[in-house]
Amino acid sequence: MAIDAIVLHTNDNVATAVQELKTGQQATIRLGRELNQLTLAENIPYGHKFSIRTISLGENILKYGEVIGRATVQIEAGRHAHVQNIESLRGRGDLGKEEQ
């Protein structure tokens, strides 16, 4: 079975598209040897991230098991997760360590 996206760590809440994906598509997502299905709520460009579950406003975005940003709005499962709904936490001088 061909895969459409990968998740690299069990704690991740986003997957990375390994090909261009379309709204309504039933995407096959691989985590290790496990395969899961998720219906996409919008188009996902190749190499971009999408939410694999609902991510709450202010919740950390996890990829590779690491925090890569924070949700600026609630992101429903199957939605594109990118600059329109994620803020970077890296290199920000306005945040103290406890906020990151």
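That was protein one. Protein two is written in the same sequence-then-structure order:
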Amino acid sequence: MNVQVILEPSDEGGYTVYVPSLPGCISEGDTEEEALCNIKEAIELYLEPVDDEMFVTESRIIREVAV
């Protein structure tokens, strides 16, 4: 999966990087390469399911969809 990210030079030095399609998914790094590596990890964590949100009740139905 390819995800578009935005790199912006930071006032303090380095770069801030965020993912417009994933609200709140943001990271930073001292170099472009480090910022891109860090945002890749942030994206993976953002998309990882959280087990405590997966509990089933009578009114919930869990399904998977391909993206």
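The chain has one domain: 6-53. Keep this in mind for the problem set.
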